[in-house]
Amino acid sequence: MYFYKGFFLIILVSFITNCSQQTIYSGKIIDQDNLNNLNVSNKTDLLSKLGKPSFEDPIENKLFYYTEKIIENNFFDSKTEYSYLFVFEIDSENNIISRKAYNLLDKNEISLAKIETQNNVVKRGLIEKIFGGVGPQQAPTTP
Questions:
Q1: 52 secondary structure, DSSP code
Q2: Which of 73, 101, 132, 141 shows the smallest number of beta carbons within 10 Å?
Q3: How many Å apart are CA 93 and CA 28, to the nearest integer?
Q4: Per-residue confidence at 140, pLDDT binned at 50, 70, 90?
Q5: What is the pLDDT of residue 135?
Q6: pLDDT tens digits, residue range 110-123?
Q7: How many domains in the chain?
């Protein structure tokens, strides 16, 4: 009898929680007003306007802002309303030299690189590739 009551309670709770709509934001929340009034020419103005970036590339000196909005009606029904990546390239004098916006929902706009980075740290033989290095492992001695 307790089993049926517990099972019924679990079903009831799952129905109640799945009936509510949730809006989930990821990354920096950038609204249309921020984008329309984004007349900045240097890194200081950009940081004061949009805040700290989602990622800063120290090699190419680029700032990345990621923003996404997902609406979930229930566990099985979720819709991504928007998903953008904003890239600002900064020169050595902290001036913005290029700005790009990528709509991550538009798959035709994005292309992925096909090249892979080689792993020259550990050379593996055929048996190790097949079995995944079964057995005791030795730590590398080179720094």
A1: S
A2: 141
A3: 25
A4: low
A5: 59
A6: 666 778 777 666 66
A7: 1
